[in-house]
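hey m, so remember when u said the tokens were messed up on ur end? i reran from scratch. heres the input so u can diff it against urs
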Amino acid sequence: MKIISCHLISIIVLFFTILFISAAIEASAYEQMLQQQVRQGDWNAVKMTLQRAEQRCKNQQDANGCLAKVTFSGAWAYSRRAEDDSSNRTAYLQRARDGYLEILKQHPKHMATIDNLLLVLEQLGDRQQLERMLKLLRSLDDDSRFIKATLIVADLYRDDGNIERAFGYYWRAFATEPSQRALNGLQITFKQAPTAEKAKHMLTLAEKTENIARSRQLYAFLLNFRNTLEQRQWETAAIEWLALLGKERLLTADVIKKDIDLELNPEFLELNRRLQDPYLGLSSSNLKIGDMTLVDYRREGWWHQSLPRTWAFTIAAWSQGHYRLVRKDIKGANSIWKAALQFAPPSYSYNQELKGRWAVSLELLTDLARIQRLYKSEIDPDGRTFANIERSLFYSKAQAYRVNDLQAIQRHHTMMGKMYADLGLFSESKTGVRSAEFQLSHAIKTAEKRSVQTKKADPQPQLAKLLADGYSCSLPGQKAGCQKKSTKAQQFYLQATEDYLKLDAVQPASRTFQKINVTPQTETKTKQLKTLIDLRGSLTDDYLQKGKTHPDVVTKKKEIANQWQVLGESAKAREITEEVRKVESTKVDKTKVYEKVEKSDQSQKVIEQPTDKTRIYKQIETDKLDTRQNLQLKQVQPIELERKK
């Protein structure tokens, strides 16, 4: 009896397997035939194929899901026909639009439908429907498609001459992601109807965006509309453009001449002349190291009538000094930096009028100290200038300690630590506070204090690596005979690797990891870090190839979160877990778009060794259909809908 039962079960399994494969072959043939008919332009055949497919759907268990697939194929076919039949183009695009909208009623998160629908709506110029799509995309938290749709709407309004609405949509797109296309749209619509109100919005974008290049472009653009902007707006743009470019050490007199309309903005003509002067307009007798408080005679000219202007001027001079330095003009860099110190706002001003801004005097002092030691015979043979600069640095740091400004304290220790590391002065036991070891250690400790205060992690991998290099005697300036402290070196190489990973800097983490020597004391943590590096590297590949919502990506993120928990970094583990939760709470589609049929519950029970023929839609997913004209629709096929239980 048991034998008969086994045979019966085998026959049933075989029957369903054959039935399933037959259905798979039929569906695959239908898709291939439809694509071929579309490519050949045989629209009568396309129509008949779609009609037969609809009839077959009525006999399917999941008739609604089957019809949705056919609707998708039909919409795609109509959009392709619109390319060949210009006289009826609009009518066919409308039919394609209606088909895609019908699918979205049941499956609002079907991304392939959304992508194709956006292209069709763009061709139709259907702003009303596009604006409805914006609400849907915002609810899906899909920034990339939201930006795409927003830019399409903006372009359509601009083409229709509605500049105000177009500017508003470009603004929304740029605020979501500061892309060059959105920036170009902002600039075009601003030029067509420039107003102080629009300038206000653009200044807000420039201030808030973290993309420095885009921010700089916005400020530079606004400087061309001096007669439209309010004076305060123009001055803000001038100061911020100068400061952003200067902080990147990209600002020179030549750049100002090239990028700024000097006739329209004569203040920059004055600045240009000053930057080309060896002493920024001062005499050599005025140059001294010490008190950096501005006196009245130094306030001559537009750039010295307020501290923010003078601050920007000083940054420009610092950048010009680097321009001279890279061209081997050591004395020129030295002279302009000494002159810049006479204009640098004093440290106390960063707690008042310049609160929150970048303290350029610290950069000037540390850069000056470096070149005094590195080019001692040329510019500081007796060492007096270096000694004066060093005293100024310690005085400035003491001022930061006096008011307990942890951010300023950390910055002083960091800059001084890097300076001493460059000079090869590492060991605290030999040079005390005038050492990279002392300053870098205190910079890291201060960063940890700030993290406690702000409740925000502040990893310092570069400082930890500098300390490790110093303990292993591998800093460029360290002399022969340096005594290695291998245990401390390994401690900080481990810390630097972990800190790089906290910042998702995988490649620097991997390079630093190579310097770690495995010992019984470090073996466990080394293995944990290696696991994390491998996971992060693999995650990057999966993310680029499969997207952030793919199950493989989500799974690896969970593994990474677990690994951080193993390392004792609960905060980092929670951060990644929250990212995963957001992705999982926004499911792409209940319909399991493009899932292979053999992954469904029913097929898993039947098919043990799926063949190419049973991978329904797999080939069609990966094929790239030829595209014609400018209607570049995604190559897709009927969606695989979840079977209703």
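this time it looks ok to me. Residues 1-27, 586-645 have pLDDT under 50 and may be disordered. if urs says something different then somethings off w ur setup not the seq
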